[in-house]
Design a protein that fits this description.
The chain has 274 residues and is mostly helical. It has helices spanning 18-23, 25-40, 49-68, 78-100, 102-105, 107-112, 119-122, 125-145, 154-182, 185-199, 212-218, 222-234, 242-266, 270-273. The chain has one domain.
C-alpha cells in the first residue's frame, strides 16, 4: 500500500499547528542545539561571554549614568539596578536579532526541505535561554554581594517575565523574519533599531523620573513591566506594579499573535524569495 503526502499552505488563521510542531520537535531541538554550538564554536572564553557582556555594560553605564549623570536607582545600588535590566534586555534583544535573520541564514534548508518554517525563528530561544541562565546566576551573585536577598516572589516572577519577554521578542522576530525575506534592509536596520530601543526601555533609568503621561506610553513597551517587576523582587520587595506587568503580558501576546499571523500570511513565498 502506498501513501501520498500532500503539502499545501494552511489557513493563515491557523496560527500554530501544535500537532505538526510536535511531529517536528526533533528538528526544533537540532536547530536550537546547533545555534548553541555555533555561538561558542572556536571562541576562547566560550560561555563566559554571557558574563563578560552584561558586566562590561554594567560597568560603563554605572560610570557614565550612575556617577556622572546621577540617574536615581531607587532602593537598589546602580550597578545592580542596571544589571537586572540588562539580563532581561539582552535575552529579549538576542531572540529578536536571531529570529529576524533566521530565514535568511538558513535559506538552503528553506529552499530544499519542507518543515514548519516557524521552527527556525522559534528555535532561537534555545541559545538565548542558555545565556539568560548564566546571566541570571551572575545577577544572583551580584545581589548577594550588595546584601540584597530576592523575595520568594522571584520564583514566580522570573519565569513569568521570561514568558512575557519570549512572546514579545518572538512576535517581533516572526514579523521581521518574514519582512526580511523580501526586504533585506531589515538585517542592516535591526542593530540600529535595537540600540534605539534600549533607550526607550527603562534599563538605565527608572520610570519614576518620567512624567505620568509618558510613563503610560512607555508601559506599552513589554520590557518595561518585565524589568520593573524583576527589580522589585530582586530588591527583596513584594509589592509589584501588577498593572504594568499585565500590560506587558497583553502587549506581548498581541505581538506574538500579530507576528505569527503575518508569518503565516507570507510563508508561501519564502522559498521563492529567500
Amino acid at each position: 500500500m502506498s501513501y501520498t503526502t500532500v503539502i499545501k499552505p494552511k489557513s493563515k488563521w491557523m496560527l500554530l499547528d501544535i500537532e505538526e510542531l510536535w511531529r517536528y520537535r526533533e528538528l526544533f531541538w537540532i536547530f536550537a542545539w546547533r545555534d548553541i554550538k555555533v555561538r561558542y564554536k572556536q571562541t576562547l572564553f566560550g560561555a563566559s561571554w554571557a558574563v563578560f557582556q552584561p558586566l562590561t555594560s554594567t560597568f560603563i553605564f554605572t560610570i557614565f549614568f550612575g556617577n556622572f549623570a546621577k540617574i536615581p536607582s531607587g532602593d537598589l545600588p546602580y550597578p545592580l539596578f542596571v544589571l537586572t535590566g540588562l539580563v532581561f534586555w539582552n535575552y529579549f534583544s538576542g531572540i529578536l536579532s536571531r529570529a529576524s535573520n533566521s530565514l535568511i541564514e538558513n535559506e538552503g534548508v528553506v529552499k530544499k526541505v519542507y518543515f514548519p518554517r516557524e521552527i527556525l525563528p522559534l528555535s532561537t530561544v534555545g541559545a538565548n535561554l542558555v545565556d539568560f541562565g548564566i546571566s541570571l546566576i551572575l545577577l544572583l551573585i551580584v545581589s548577594f554581594y550588595f546584601h540584597f536577598v530576592p523575595s520568594l516572589l522571584t520564583l514566580f516572577i522570573v519565569p513569568l517575565c521570561l514568558i512575557i519577554s519570549t512572546l514579545g521578542a518572538e512576535g517581533l522576530g516572526l514579523f521581521l523574519a518574514s519582512f526580511n525575506v523580501k526586504y533585506r534592509d531589515v538585517r542592516y536596520a535591526l542593530p540600529f533599531f535595537i540600540q534605539i530601543m534600549i533607550f526607550l526601555t527603562p534599563v538605565i533609568y527608572p520610570t519614576s523620573i518620567m512624567r505620568p503621561s509618558f510613563r503610560e506610553i512607555i508601559a506599552l513597551n513589554p520590557m518595561t513591566g518585565v524589568i520593573e517587576a524583576a527589580r522589585t523582587v530582586f530588591s527583596g520587595g513584594n509589592i509589584l506594579n501588577w498593572q504594568t506587568l499585565l500590560i506587558a503580558g497583553v502587549v506581548s501576546v498581541l505581538l506574538f499573535i500579530t507576528g505569527i499571523y503575518y508569518f503565516k500570511s507570507t510563508e508561501g513565498f519564502f522559498a521563492d524569495l529567500v
